[in-house]
Amino acid sequence: MNEKQMTAPDSHYEQMIAEESVCTTENIVYEKPHTLTDTPFHYCPGCGHGVAHRLIAEVIEEMDIQEETIGVAPVGCSVFAYNYLNIDMSEAAHGRASAVATGIKRVLPEKYVFSYQGDGDLAAIGTAETIHTCNRGENILIIFINNGIYGMTGGQMAPTTLPNMKSTTSPFGRDTNSMGYPLKITELIAALPGTYYVTRQSVHKPLNVRKAKKAILNGFQYQKLNRGTCFVEIVSNCPSNWKMTPVESNKWLEDNMLPFYQLGDIKVPKEEIK
Ligand SMILES: Cc1ncc(C[n+]2csc(CCOP(=O)(O)OP(=O)(O)O)c2C)c(N)n1
Ligand code: SF4
Ligand SMILES: [Mg+2]
C-alpha cells in the first residue's frame, strides 16, 4: 500500500465530517418547498411542467396561503398535478378547468383559486370555457402551459402548433392553407374586459424562470383585489414529442416559439398591490 492509499480513507472521512457540519438547518439556503409532496414527478426529463409546478409551490409557500388555495388540474400531461402540489385540488374534465375553478371560487370566494392547463386543454377542447370565464371576469388565476402540441396523447397538432412545425398529425409540417393558423389565445383573451392581468412568460432559462415566478405571484396577489381574471401563459417545451434532447428543445423554443409567442406583459393593471 503506498502513502496515497493509506491516507485516502482518513481524508474521505474528514470530508464527510466537514460536509455534515456544513449541511445544518441554519445553513440551508434553498430547499424543496413544503407545498410540493414527496411524490416524484412523472414528467419526461427537461419538461417545463416540473419547473412550472415548482414555481407555483414556491409562490404558495412564500405567500403562506397553502390552506387557502385550491387548484384545478387539467387533462393532459399535467393530469396528476394534484399528486404533486400539497394543497386542495380538484380534477376537471378535459378543457373544463376554468369552469370548475369558476364554481369553486363562487362558492368559496375567500379562497385563492387557480387552474393549470395545457394548450390542447385550454385553447382547443376548452376554448369556449376559457373565453367565457375570462369574459365574465371570474376572479381566478389561469396558468396556461403552451408547448405547441398535444403532449400526453403522442404529439398531435394543437391550435398552438407553429406554421411548418411537424407533429404526428402534421408529419410534413403545419400547412396554414389547410390547417389554419396558430391561435394566440392569450392576446385574444387580453382583449376581453373581464381580464385584469395577462402576461406571457417562459421557463427555459434561469432569468425566465424568475420572471415566470413573479408573474405567478402577481396573479395570486391580484386575486385579493377581486378585479377579474388573471392569466399567465408559460411558453414551454415537450422534448419527447418534439423529438429533441432537453437542451435542444430549449434552444428550439427560443429560436422558434418565442419569435411567434413573444414574451412579456400584455395587460398590466395600474393598481398597486397592497
Ligand atoms: C374531450 C376529450 N378529448 C380528447 C381527449 C384526449 N386527450 C387527453 S390529453 C390530450 C392532449 C392534452 O394536450 P395539452 O392540453 O396540450 O397538454 P400537454 O399534455 O401538452 O401538457 C387529449 C387530446 C380527452 N381526454 N377528452
Ligand atoms: S410528453 Fe412532453 S409535455 Fe408530456 S411530460 Fe413528456 S415532455 Fe412534458
Ligand atoms: Mg400541450
Describe this structure in words.
A seven-stranded mixed sheet has the order 2-1-3-4-6-5-7, sandwiched between helices. The chain has one domain (44-267): Rossmann fold, CATH 3.40.50. The relative contact order is 0.13. The chain is of the alpha/beta class. The protein is built from eleven helices and seven strands. 42% of the residues lie in helices and 15% in strands. The protein binds thiamine diphosphate, iron/sulfur cluster and magnesium ion. Iron/sulfur cluster (SF4) is lined by residues 43-44, 47, 49, 77, 147, 151-152, 238-241.
What would a concise description of this structure say?
The protein is an alpha/beta fold and 274 residues long. It has helices at residues 3-22, 48-63, 81-84, 97-107, 119-125, 127-136, 176-179, 185-190, 206-223, 239-242, 246-260; strands at 69-73, 88-91, 112-118, 141-146, 195-202, 229-235, 264-267.
Strand order of the largest sheet: 2-1-3-4-6-5-7
The biggest beta sheet, please? Answer: 7 strands, mixed
Put simply, the count of helices is 11
CATH level-two architecture: 3-Layer(aba) Sandwich
Count of distinct strands: 7
Distinct small molecules bound, one entry per kind:
thiamine diphosphate, iron/sulfur cluster, magnesium ion
Q: Rough shape? A: globular
Instruction: Quickly name the level 1 CATH class.
Output: Alpha Beta
Our Rg estimate from Cα atoms comes to 21 Å
Low-confidence stretches: none
The share of residues in helices is: 40-55%
Termini separation (Å)?
69 Å
CATH superfamily, by name, is Thiamin diphosphate (ThDP)-binding fold, Pyr/PP domains
- Proportion of β residues? 5-15%
Order of helices and strands: HHEHEHEHHEHHEHEHHE
Mean pLDDT: 94
Number of domain units: 1
CATH topology: Rossmann fold
Helix/strand/pairing category = alpha/beta
